[in-house]
Design brief:
Number of domains: 1
Largest sheet: 5 strands, parallel
Strand content: 15-25%
Strand order of the largest sheet: 2-7-1-8-9
Number of strands: 9
CATH class: Alpha Beta
Structural class: alpha/beta
Shape: globular
CATH topology: Rossmann fold
Length: about 210
């Protein structure tokens, strides 16, 4: 009994670190994350964020986001149930402790896709993730990507660009991110991301082999 408990304790201590992916909308975070999940099935777990905005076409509740009311989310934040939360374009976004714990309980690398405000909030916790910033090669490229989506009003697009500019400036501050990946070529960016995470990937693979 003691050895079983000790083994579990050692496994938990040696478990994989979570990963924070941050960067402006349109930088390619979602595409890179999708590639990781497809190549490394059973390795990564996506921490599903909460938001008070309405779903976009094709988005599914509890898969893309937990779509909730503002009243529900604010009450949950007030109760201390969120690791981080922020307001963008009048809508709340955040990562709940339960979402992260659900992934960690499966001995998976928990991935958090959060903005720069969220990054600063996570840094005040004991989560100890690997901080990765995914960035566009230029603001011009980012604007073109966002316009090609055809999902934003002009006002919303301009707000996203203003936020992106601020995020990119803040990301230059020392100690904010462990690594910055400029997504000027998707394959190259993905190769760099895998290189950064390979040690944590091996941890999960070893846990799976020993279980």
């Amino acid at each position: 009994m003691f050895m079983r408990c000790f083994s579990r304790l050692v496994s938990a201590m040696a478990g994989p670190r979570p990963v924070v992916l941050s960067g402006p909308s349109g930088a390619g975070k979602s595409t890179l994350l999708k590639m990781l999940l497809e190549e490394y099935k059973g390795i990564f777990g996506f921490s599903v964020s909460h938001t008070t905005r309405n779903p976009r076409p094709g988005e599914e509740n509890s898969k893309d986001y937990h779509f909730v009311t503002r009243e529900f989310m604010q009450a949950s934040v007030d109760r201390g149930e969120f690791i981080e939360s922020a307001v963008f374009s009048g809508n709340m976004y955040g990562t709940s402790k339960a979402s992260v714990q659900a992934v960690k309980d499966k001995n998976l690398i928990c991935v958090l896709d959060i903005d720069i405000q969220g990054v600063r909030s996570v840094k005040t916790t004991d989560l100890n993730p690997i901080y990765v910033s995914i960035q566009p090669p230029s603001m011009t490229v980012l604007e073109n990507r966002l316009r090609d989506r055809k999902t934003e009003s002009e006002e919303s697009l301009q707000k996203r660009l203003e936020t992106a500019q601020l995020d990119l400036e803040i990301s230059k501050e020392p100690g904010i991110f462990d690594v910055v990946i400029v997504n000027d070529n998707l394959d190259n960016a993905y190769a760099k991301l895998k290189h950064v995470l390979i040690e944590e990937i091996k941890k999960v693979q070893n846990i799976n082999l020993s279980s």
